[in-house]
Amino acid sequence: MADYYPYANRYPVNRGMPEKGRPREEVLGELREMAHDEDGFWQTGRCSGTMYCGDMEHYGFMTEAFGMYSHVNALQRDMCPSATRFEGEIIAMTLDMLHASQAPEGSSPCGSVTSGGTESILSAILAYREFAREHRGITQPQMILPETAHVAFEKGGHLFGLEVIRAPVDPETTLVDVDFVKSHITDRTALLVGSACNYGYGTIDAIDELSAIAVQHDIGLHVDGCLGGWILPWGEELGFDIPVFDFRLPGVTSISADTHKYGYGPKGSSVLCYRDKKLRQGLYFMQQEWSGGKYLSPGIAGSRSGGILAATWASLVSMGRDGYLRYAKKIFDTSYAMQDVVKDLPELKLMGKPAFCFSFRSDAFDIYHVNDLMRERGWRFNGQQHPNALHMCVTRPQTQDGVVESFKNDLAEGVAYAKNPKQEKATTGAVYGGLPKGDTAALEFVEGLMVKMLDAHQDVPDA
């Protein structure tokens, strides 16, 4: 059981509130040990995504910035006006990168800083729902999205009562079927969704075609750039084959872009950009009669640490355009080199036409046998299904010397192993995130454990 409750065999397990507090240095020492061990896993450059920056000096810089404002509540702008500065400039820099200045005449671009991609997506859905109610009289809204769109859109539909229409994707290109989207628009359609790029395959939907449909039907189009929003613009500027997906297209009315990914900010930060302020108004909530005072909320979140804003701002201004271009060049070059490795193995097939993030599958064997061997070699890919595939999101740690060469050697061994595996059933599988040791046999246990803990709010398994 210890595998499913981390560190139970190494440190005491707090099964309740300790009677006496521990010395701070002892607590910090325990944290340092765990952090050191866990950082060693991804610092090899063999971990897909997750650690987008990988620069410990940059992390230290952001930690210092965060520490100055960690105790600040971003709600209290009268006491801490710096939060307004940080937030406003984070939004302004993101809008600039996404060419908001080239939006159609009459637009009034703006944005919101959120806690991550999921909140940005949820906020967008809520804003579109409210806009559709007020301006189009839609009481039972629908949204049309690619089946490859992030699952957070499904979550938003569930939470805010929008019917989700899933558009199929071409199995070869992995891009959304634009004709399906066009033919399924009704008078209840509140928004369309496209990905730039989708999480699974790293491919960019035909945003220009979706934009034309959105304009034709006067419907909003949200572009999910949570993953790609902070690197694709630099790739385009560098001359890589990146199609236009931002506010230069007249039908694009909102874009989400995570600063905690390729913006290299701290975890828990994203930006939701709007082409016009009228759309953002759907997020406002006001209650003037509450006994605690008149309440106005500009978004879903309430209290937030000012540290996140300060550290995100610090990351963006310390990098600058030149820094982002420099790192993007290395990431794109590395990704295309790794994709060439995949293409050179006839048993493997690249999914679509990806850029910095790519996925591959096999018609010759179960691709998870390849993953089993790669796990033994220290690699951590993200598993996918329908079809089974492996996904590699290239970040700065992969740009280290020797990583591409290791990928080439280990992947060739993985293919050889998959042709004659030790056991019929692979031990790894398609799980978003990760399980202890990548063992799919643990999935049922972990699901049950999560439900139990959510229900009881206190149960901790015995080690």
Structure description:
The chain has 463 residues and is of the alpha/beta class. The chain has 2 domains: 2-52 and 326-447, Aspartate Aminotransferase, domain 1, CATH 3.90.1150.10; 82-315, 3-Layer(aba) Sandwich (Aspartate Aminotransferase, domain 2), CATH 3.40.640.10. Helix content is 40%, strand content 13%. It is built from 13 helices and 13 strands. The protein has helices spanning 24-42, 56-69, 82-97, 117-136, 152-160, 178-183, 207-217, 232-237, 277-280, 306-343, 367-376, 403-419, 443-456; strands at 110-114, 142-146, 163-167, 189-195, 220-224, 252-257, 270-274, 285-287, 295-297, 349-350, 357-361, 382-384, 389-393. The strands form 3 sheets. It has a 7-stranded mixed beta sheet with strand order 1-7-6-5-4-2-3, sandwiched between helices. Strands 10-11-13-12 form a 4-stranded antiparallel beta sheet. It has a two-stranded antiparallel sheet with strand order 8-9. A hairpin with a 6-residue loop joins strand 10 and strand 11 (357-361). The longest helix is centred in the C-terminal third of the chain and has 38 residues, at 306-343. It is globular. The relative contact order is 0.14. The model is unreliable at 457-463 (pLDDT under 50).
